[in-house]
Recover the amino acids of this structure.
């Protein structure tokens, strides 16, 4: 499902919010989409940028992913796991909509790139899927926030020891890169996954849903044919100050020296749509957290019977997870904790619950902790562990892996003795239309 299909679907479903007045991409746009976070928002008129529309909230809810992939929300983890295990090479077409307009004269300032926060280092492209080719491992797709420097350059936050950084270290000179903005949902999801080295994220996207590609005009890279905007360029050996910028944890990331990307060519669709992903918003959190769930699930399922995983937005969709198990043995809760930490190395806190707890309902998870957990017997604390650079409370030393303490809570019922006192009282349902007026029900 590309952006235009999504707009049509969300409009038909009554999900789409359409802004009726012109919006300035300098700070105002972020304020509007922040106020409407959780819903897809179409901004058809952008002050100073005739011909461009902006869409935000494309991936703000799990239901959006399910609709795009043609499945139920409960099936998303299985769909992602299957695609990771069985990627499919996508077709490469001779042409595609993303190259309807070709601009040899590069000018990034003509795009409605937002400035999200007053403290930002500049205007930022936040939903660009960056595609590079590692000389040994092949294609790699990932996200890098891009701070626009001028008409033809941007600075990219490239995390050390990840795919793009590794490929850049192998290149003799500049590394070709293509940045696709406004990608189909399956591409956005696949690019956020962390498959084994050498597995092409675009092949994962094809396994999730049909994903046509086209070749770039200035390199041998390929990009999603249905993307709205493509920037073709090179990661150079020059670097500049990048940041500050809001992070996934809703805290401000600091300034670093980061590589400069020079843009050589711009292509886009006619009547293009710019995808603006609100930093720290639900769309950002879903794209970070959901792809970690199948890896946690697989790790836990090796040691006990796992029935669900939710990387929670309250934990910045990165640091906290709720793991649901069908408990068979006394130690299953602890086994699940250890396995979850192995399935997602950045995980800081994990809560293990039984199958009768809705892992997507924070009140039910808290209820399980309140009624089934005792700190003296059910708490596991791990000190001085490898942690996440996103956690501001951790210990961060330049050039070294971040360190943190980790905690697991076993909020499952005991197997021995009576379990009746641990089970939640339920009431049978009724048809409220038989009791209330239409306006009340």
């Amino acid at each position: 499902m590309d952006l235009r299909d999504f707009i049509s679907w969300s409009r038909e479903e009554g999900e789409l919010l359409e802004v009726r007045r012109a919006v300035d991409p300098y700070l105002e746009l972020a304020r509007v989409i922040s106020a409407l976070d959780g819903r897809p928002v179409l901004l058809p008129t952008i002050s100073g940028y005739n011909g461009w529309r902006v869409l935000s909230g494309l991936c703000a809810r799990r239901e959006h992913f399910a609709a795009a992939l043609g499945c139920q929300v409960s099936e998303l983890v299985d769909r992602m796991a299957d695609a990771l295990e069985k990627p499919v090479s996508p077709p490469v077409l001779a042409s595609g909509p993303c190259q309807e307009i070709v601009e040899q004269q590069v000018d990034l300032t003509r795009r409605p790139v937002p400035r999200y926060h007053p403290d930002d280092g500049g205007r930022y492209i936040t939903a660009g899927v960056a595609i590079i080719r590692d000389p040994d491992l092949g294609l790699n797709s990932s996200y890098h926030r891009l701070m626009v420097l001028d008409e033809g350059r941007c600075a990219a936050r490239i995390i050390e020891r990840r795919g793009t950084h590794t490929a850049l270290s192998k290149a003799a000179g500049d590394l070709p890169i293509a940045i696709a903005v406004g990608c189909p949902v399956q591409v956005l999801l696949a690019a956020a996954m962390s498959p084994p080295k050498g597995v092409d994220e675009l092949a994962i996207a094809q396994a999730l849903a049909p994903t046509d590609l086209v070749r770039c005009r200035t390199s041998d890279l390929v990009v999603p044919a249905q993307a709205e905007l493509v920037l073709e360029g090179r990661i150079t050996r020059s670097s500049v100050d990048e940041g500050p910028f809001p992070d996934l944890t809703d805290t401000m990331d600091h300034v670093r020296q980061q590589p400069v990307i020079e843009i050589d060519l711009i292509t886009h669709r006619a009547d293009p749509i710019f995808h603006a992903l609100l930093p720290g918003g639900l769309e950002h959190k879903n794209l970070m957290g959901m792809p970690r769930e199948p890896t946690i699930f697989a790790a836990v399922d090796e040691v006990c019977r796992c029935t669900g995983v939710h990387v929670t937005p309250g934990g910045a969709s990165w640091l906290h997870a709720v793991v649901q198990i069908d408990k068979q043995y006394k130690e299953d809760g602890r086994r699940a904790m250890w396995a979850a930490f192995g399935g997602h190395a950045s995980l800081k806190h994990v809560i293990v619950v039984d199958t009768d707890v809705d892992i997507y309902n924070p009140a039910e998870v808290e209820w399980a902790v309140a009624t089934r957990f005792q700190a003296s017997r059910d708490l596991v604390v791990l000190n001085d562990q490898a942690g996440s650079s996103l956690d501001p409370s951790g210990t961060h030393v330049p050039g070294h892996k971040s360190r943190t303490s980790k905690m697991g809570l076993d909020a499952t019922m005991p197997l021995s003795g009576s379990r009746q006192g641990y089970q939640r009282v339920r009431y049978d349902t009724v048809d409220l239309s038989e009791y209330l007026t239409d306006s009340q029900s």
Observations:
- The mean pLDDT is 94.
- The longest strand covers residues 229-242.
- DSSP finds twelve helices and 23 strands in the chain.
- Residues 332-343 form the longest helix (12 residues).
